[in-house]
Amino acid sequence: MSHSTQSSDGTIRCNWAHGAPDYPFYQVYHDTEWGFVQGNDQRLFEKLCLEGFQSGLSWRTILAKRENFRAAFDDFDFHKIAMYTEDDVERLVQDAGIIRHRGKINATINNAKRAIEMLETEGTLAAYIWGFEPSVQELSELEYPAATSPSSVALSKDLKKRGWKFVGPTTMYAFMQSMGLVNDHTPDCHCHAACEAQRAAFIRPTSP
């Protein structure tokens, strides 16, 4: 957990949420998305892909381009992305609105195919992902701010074994933080209690 700071509006937020004036959406992202439970397959897949695109970059850069990514990648419908051809790869490489990294673009298409394969065994992507939710004991033993956890390492290893790309343990921990598998809002942040309440009420999806 990071430290927190009182914003100009009097609200206490995690330090990282205090973006520059030209990034007003960054604070909105903190207040309405980061750490809140997500169980929708398409949104989970989107975040897995965007975390991969973030590799070597800042999340601000990715967030600023997120709507462009959604437009370019069919709103991250992995059934559609799995059907992309080399023409689509070239289209995306030429799209200045996204990160034009051929390796990451190809990884997204590859991961879409792997996601479809996962549905056959796990039922939903959400059931698979939430199966790696860290235990209370595991989280209590982490030293904050943490960059990885045993669960993120395990998720990374299993995804790689299944053929996924750009899913390292640090990337997977950031994914867990953002999708609500971990509540890393600092305890005095105004979002912490809301995320805890949502996590408590959330019915974890399970594989068949």
Element layout with pairings:
Blueprint: E1 4-6, E2 12-14, H1 24-32, H2 41-54, H3 59-64, H4 66-72, H5 78-81, H6 86-93, H7 102-122, H8 125-130, H9 136-140, H10 150-161, H11 169-178, H12 192-201
Antiparallel strand pairs: 1-2
Helix pairs in contact: 2-7, 2-11, 10-11
Structural summary, described in words:
The protein is an all-alpha fold. It has one domain (38-201): Hypothetical protein, domain 2 (Endonuclease III, domain 1, Orthogonal Bundle), CATH 1.10.340. The chain has twelve helices and two strands. It has helices at 24-32, 41-54, 59-64, 66-72, 78-81, 86-93, 102-122, 125-130, 136-140, 150-161, 169-178, 192-201, and strands at 4-6, 12-14. Strands 1-2 form a two-stranded antiparallel ribbon. Helix 2 (41-54) packs antiparallel against helix 7 (102-122), helix 2 packs across helix 11 (169-178) and helix 10 crosses helix 11. The longest helix is centred in the middle third of the chain and has 21 residues, at 102-122. The relative contact order is 0.17.
Low-confidence stretches: none
Return the CATH architecture.
Orthogonal Bundle
* Tally of structural domains: 1
**The CATH C-level class name:** Mainly Alpha
Mean pLDDT: 93
Question: Order of helices and strands, N to C?
Answer: EEHHHHHHHHHHHH
Oligomer state of the chains in this structure: single chain
Main sheet properties? 2 strands, antiparallel
Beta percentage is: under 5%
